[in-house]
């Protein structure tokens, strides 16, 4: 019996050898996502809602989401050469969108209920789900009540395109940029538009051009249509995808170490410049994490004894990171505020918010993300499959999108030369 290997299935499953899954990538995913969770619980919460201050510690460094986008770009290069670009793109959309849409609706509904209570709102027609409140209780820190327009804008992923739209959960900013990046990658790869000659110029344009636009066209007093295009396309973050591509090229021996070093420094400078040099500590922290990403991409697996013992937990947490990311921020704030009103301590609020993120992340992964992905990507069995042979396509991997799954992401042996076409990955997912 033979099995067709696709971009969604680890290559190790097609071989009787032991799994080549690299635990180092799982560690990085868990670290990045839960750094976001902790930063939002302890730091961002009191910025959005000052009454939630008072945690015993704060993590003000914002680097987790940027790290996730770098890893995502790295594994675009790893997986895109494994099948037709159109099917590859659909596989990614089928993984991302269903869970996102469910998370948006669930967060909207819970937010409307909770904020109605927090602000003491009363609705003339009794429609708490979409109605406009006619009165409320005066409070020093009122919460913004999302509207039906906000719901539609978030479902359509156009929150950043107009100032009248509001984020139901501010963590969602990474989703539109990922969808756009995946579509661009499928387009470029499908038409072989990048090669050894123009790839360096393409990578450097991702760093330089947005900064030039930021300081010449997209200023505070720019026309709204310019702001909408710049913010809607998240041009201030496209350099993160360039970083992921550059690290992949380096790990395959197709970019020199000195070139990667200069590129990473330039990308970090660009990231700080986009923030108008107001959050340099976060940029420095992100730079340190990039060294770990390089170590995972170009070095041996982090399969040391203590990690080996914890590998089941690490792998499980890595598998639910997308769900955790989708569901943790706004609902975590609501949990913290509810417990605050009940007299809970800061540690109790932190523990409850963290546990809620893990629990809801697992639920949305198990009951939405994975089933929906299987449903949307399954294909009819071939005639051979009907006769008892293998199906035309194996069942898709339960791993989340951009999840590292094989050692193929490491450096090749021997080192390969830069290909005439880019990317041309021989690696599995």
From TrEMBL:
<keyword id="KW-0472">Membrane</keyword>
<feature type="region of interest" description="Disordered">
    <location>
        <begin position="379"/>
        <end position="429"/>
    </location>
</feature>
<feature type="transmembrane region" description="Helical">
    <location>
        <begin position="283"/>
        <end position="302"/>
    </location>
</feature>
<feature type="transmembrane region" description="Helical">
    <location>
        <begin position="55"/>
        <end position="78"/>
    </location>
</feature>
<feature type="transmembrane region" description="Helical">
    <location>
        <begin position="170"/>
        <end position="189"/>
    </location>
</feature>
<feature type="domain" description="Acyltransferase 3">
    <location>
        <begin position="24"/>
        <end position="365"/>
    </location>
</feature>
<keyword id="KW-1133">Transmembrane helix</keyword>
<feature type="transmembrane region" description="Helical">
    <location>
        <begin position="314"/>
        <end position="335"/>
    </location>
</feature>
<protein>
    <submittedName>
        <fullName>Peptidoglycan/LPS O-acetylase OafA/YrhL</fullName>
    </submittedName>
</protein>
<dbReference type="Pfam" id="PF01757">
    <property type="entry name" value="Acyl_transf_3"/>
</dbReference>
<feature type="transmembrane region" description="Helical">
    <location>
        <begin position="201"/>
        <end position="217"/>
    </location>
</feature>
<dbReference type="InterPro" id="IPR002656">
    <property type="entry name" value="Acyl_transf_3_dom"/>
</dbReference>
<dbReference type="InterPro" id="IPR050879">
    <property type="entry name" value="Acyltransferase_3"/>
</dbReference>
<feature type="transmembrane region" description="Helical">
    <location>
        <begin position="347"/>
        <end position="365"/>
    </location>
</feature>
<feature type="transmembrane region" description="Helical">
    <location>
        <begin position="257"/>
        <end position="277"/>
    </location>
</feature>
<feature type="transmembrane region" description="Helical">
    <location>
        <begin position="27"/>
        <end position="43"/>
    </location>
</feature>
<keyword id="KW-0812">Transmembrane</keyword>
<feature type="transmembrane region" description="Helical">
    <location>
        <begin position="229"/>
        <end position="250"/>
    </location>
</feature>
<feature type="transmembrane region" description="Helical">
    <location>
        <begin position="99"/>
        <end position="124"/>
    </location>
</feature>
């Amino acid at each position: 019996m033979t099995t067709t290997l696709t971009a969604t299935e680890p290559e190790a499953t097609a071989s009787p050898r032991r799994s080549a899954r690299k635990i180092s990538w799982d560690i990085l995913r868990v670290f990045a996502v839960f750094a976001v969770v902790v930063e939002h619980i302890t730091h961002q919460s009191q910025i959005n809602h000052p009454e939630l201050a008072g945690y015993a510690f704060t993590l003000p460094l914002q680097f987790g989401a940027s790290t996730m986008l770098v890893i995502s770009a790295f594994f675009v290069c790893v997986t895109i050469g494994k099948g037709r670009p159109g099917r590859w793109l659909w596989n990614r959309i089928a993984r991302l969108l269903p869970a996102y849409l469910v998370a948006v609706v669930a967060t909207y509904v819970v937010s409307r209920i909770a904020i109605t209570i927090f602000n003491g709102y009363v609705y003339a027609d009794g429609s708490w789900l979409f109605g406009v409140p006619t009165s409320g209780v005066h409070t020093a820190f009122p919460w913004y009540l999302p509207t039906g327009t906000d719901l539609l804008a978030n479902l359509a992923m156009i929150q950043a395109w107009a100032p009248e739209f509001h984020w139901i959960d501010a963590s969602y900013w990474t989703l539109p940029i990922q969808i756009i990046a995946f579509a661009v990658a499928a387009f470029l790869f499908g038409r072989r538009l990048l090669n050894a000659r123009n790839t360096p110029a393409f990578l450097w344009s991702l760093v330089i051009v947005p900064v030039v636009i930021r300081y010449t066209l997209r200023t505070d007093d720019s026309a709204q249509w310019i702001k909408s295009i710049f913010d809607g396309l998240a041009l201030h973050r496209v350099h993160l995808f360039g970083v992921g591509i550059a690290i992949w090229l380096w790990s395959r021996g197709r970019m020199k170490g000195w070139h990667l070093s200069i590129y990473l420094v330039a990308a970090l400078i660009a990231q700080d410049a986009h923030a108008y040099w107001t959050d340099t500590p976060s940029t420095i922290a992100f730079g340190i994490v990039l060294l770990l990403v390089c170590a995972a991409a170009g070095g041996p697996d982090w399969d040391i004894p203590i990690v080996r013992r914890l590998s089941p937990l690490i792998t499980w947490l890595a598998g639910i990171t997308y769900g955790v990311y989708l569901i943790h921020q706004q609902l975590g704030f609501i949990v913290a505020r509810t417990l605050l009103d009940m007299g809970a301590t800061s540690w109790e609020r932190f523990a409850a918010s963290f546990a809620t993120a893990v629990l809801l992340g697992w639920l949305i992964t198990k009951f939405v993300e994975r089933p929906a992905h299987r449903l949307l990507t399954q294909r009819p069995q071939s005639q051979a499959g009907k006769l008892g042979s293998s199906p035309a396509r194996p069942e898709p991997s339960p791993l989340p999108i951009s999840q590292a799954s094989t050692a193929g992401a490491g450096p090749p042996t021997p080192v390969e030369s830069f290909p005439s076409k880019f990317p041309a990955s021989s690696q599995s997912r």
